[in-house]
Every structure is written in structure tokens, then in C-alpha cells.
Amino acid sequence: MFSINDTFPNLRFKQFNDKWKYKKLGEVADIVSGGTPDTTKHDYWNGSINWYTPAEVGNNIFVSDSQRKITNIGLENSSAKILPVGTVLFTSRAGIGKTAILKEKGSTNQGFQSIVPKQKFLDSYFIFSMSNILKKYGESHGAGSTFLEISGKELAKAKISLPSITEQKHISKVLFKLDTIITFQKQEIDNLKKLKQFLLQNMFI
Questions:
Q1: Per residue in 173-193, is it b (16+ CB within 10 Å) or e — as a string?
Q2: How far is residue 61 from each of residues 58, 73, 98, 203, measured CA to CA in Å?
Q3: Is 131 helix (H, G, I), strand (E, B) or coil?
Q4: What are phi and psi of 111, to 5 degrees?
Q5: Residue 175 φ then ψ, to 5°
Q6: Where is the Type I restriction modification DNA specificity domain (predicted)?
């Protein structure tokens, strides 16, 4: 689906035939960094605003409830920003390229360069499905002596090939169905492993 030959994919739904156009990520999305309120100020914490760290991202497609939360005062007195539903969180350091889609609005610490799609041009699930491409870009364009980190300015330069928003949504719908099946099958496998472990522990002396 994402193997691009010039401006046409190798595999395509037959109802679409327009060229895919190369765009810089910053043309079709806003790249937003995060921040951390002062941890010594108690009134900045234990509020109602979701605040994510990189450790919370990468295992699930969607996230909606962070481990720690900040207050409005904490938000106002830090570089953290409110991100809308549909934002693709993108870790920018200490493991570049872990992603998740916000199911509820929230904020992040400074370990992210989050992708806020411009709705007329970019579908959230479509760009999420390109996570591996963006990860490779981030790793090859990151900088830093202690650990690699990619800036928002650099991530915005990433060139991606895009179809129309209608085709993006069509592709996203199919990929979401597949991801849902994969997730369900993984859960079934985990349950079977737990059952096997239970049997081994209780049937063998």
C-alpha cells in the first residue's frame, strides 16, 4: 500500500487513479513539542489534563488516559500544550518514533514532537500507519551527542507521498480493520498462554 513508484503506489484500490503528491509533513500538519511543569509545585500536578511520557506510548494504537495529569496552572506555566483528539504522538528522543493516536485531548512532556493533522489534507490513521517511515526519517535526521533527538523543525521537513484525503480515509478504514483483528488475535494468544501456564502449574506435580 505504501510502496511508492514515482507518484503512484504499486497496489491501489481501483476507484482511485489520481497521482500521489509529495508533501513536507509540515505542510499538512502542525508539529507540536511538549513540556514538563515544575515538579516541585504541587498545584501544577494531579489535575485533570492528560500528560504523557514516552514510556506510555508504543504498545497501543490509541491512548486516552495518562499515568500522570497536570492542572491548568501547570499547563499555563510550562511549555506543555493541549493537543486535540486525533493528534499522533511521536517520540522524538530516547527511542525515536514510538507513536499513538490521542483518543482524548491531552499534553506531553518534551520527549515528543507530536503531529497534529490539518484535517483537509491529512488523516490521523493514515499518518499513524506511516510510523515506520517517519521513525526511519527521525533516526537518520536526529542529532545529539548523548542521545539522538529530532527537532520539530527537522521532522516538519520529512517528505511523504500523499493521495487525496478521500483516498487516505479509505486506506485508513481498511488498515484499522486489519489492526483491530491483529489486536484481537494477540489478546486471544495471550489468554491461551495464560491458560497453558495455569494448567502446567496445577496439573504437574
A1: eebeeeeeeeeeeeeeeeeee
A2: 7, 30, 10, 37
A3: helix
A4: -85, 15
A5: -65, -35
A6: 17-193
Residue-wise DSSP of 14-26: TT--SPPEEEEHH
Cβ partners under 8 Å of residue 184, min gap 6: none
Q: What letter does residue 20 receive in the DSSP assignment?
A: P
| pLDDT tens, residue by residue, 103-154 | 999 999 999 999 999 999 999 999 999 999 999 999 999 887 678 899 999 9
What single letter denotes the amino acid at residue 195? L
Q: Please answer whether residues 82 and 105 qualify as being in contact, where contact means their C-beta atoms are separated by less than 8 angstroms.
A: yes
Q: The whole model's pTM is what? A: 0.88
Q: How many residues does the chain have?
A: 205
Is there a contact between 34 and 111 (Cβ–Cβ < 8 Å)? yes
Among residues 56, 117, 49, the alpha carbon closest in space to that of 81 is found at: 49
132, 80 in Cβ contact below 8 A? no
pLDDT in tens, 146-194: 788 999 999 999 999 999 999 999 999 999 999 999 999 999 999 999 9
**Local structure of residue 120 (DSSP, 8 states):** T
Cell of 129: 500507519
Amino acid at 73: I
